[in-house]
Design brief:
single chain, endopeptidase fold (from Nostoc punctiforme), six-stranded antiparallel β-sheet, 5 helices, about 55% helix
Amino acid sequence: MSHTAHIPSHRKPRRSASKLALRAGVAGGVLGTIAVAGAAGPANAEPVTETIEMPTLGSLENGAGLASAVAASAEASQQEALDQSLQTQENAALQKAAKEAKTARAEADRKAAAERAEKARLKAEQERKEQEAQERASRDSARTQLSTTSSGSSNDGGSSSDGGSSTGSDESTTQAPSGSAAAIVAFARAQVGDSYVTGGTGPNSWDCSGLVQAAYREAGIDLPRISYQQSSMGSSVSLSDLQPGDILYWGSRSGSYHVAVYVGGGKYVGAQNSSTGVVERSLDWDMPSGAVRIL
């Protein structure tokens, strides 16, 4: 047998170019090794008769299977990484949704609380208005009764004045205006509890001179609108000689900044300020500067 082993021909289906090249390389390497060994031996050496087993197709196919396994493992690793990425994204989406739901619920609770507060405010406002309406109706009724009473008193007072000349001049002069004074005092007291508003002239809010003007109008007497004009009318009287219906003033007589109605018993009624409204107070609470008598 020659140095070159006889390789039987196998008629197989055509294989790929890469496999054929691999086989050719293996075969060439084996044959080259044998040729070098034969040349290096003794010249008279006996010819070497040896059968060389070539790599089988099975071993080559095993190598291809290993490559396939490696590729499959790489693909599995990629799939696992992809699954982990998707899981991370899903977890992030769930956390975001939970946060948004929590924010939405907090906003809904805030709106519900605001609505409850607004309803409570509206209810309180409605109750306040209803109470004011009831108080206003009560005052209007009282004013109507006082007006009727004062009209009768004025008529009675006039009759007494006409028929009471023997009682003396002082008594007759006080009896004639007593009905008007009673009407003024009654009207002023009926407004106690009303609110104070700058420039207010009634029927439920007043400033000081607006209240005095309206009280005197109840007795049929027209007064100027401004406080210093009202205190400039009539005649000055001492604070120790006050009578119901006298006008009290604060400041100078021709430059007063506040007026009120003396109602007797050391008290007066006036629209004081926005925090107190119309009140009845003792003279000692805020002693006036002076007084005038118009009746």
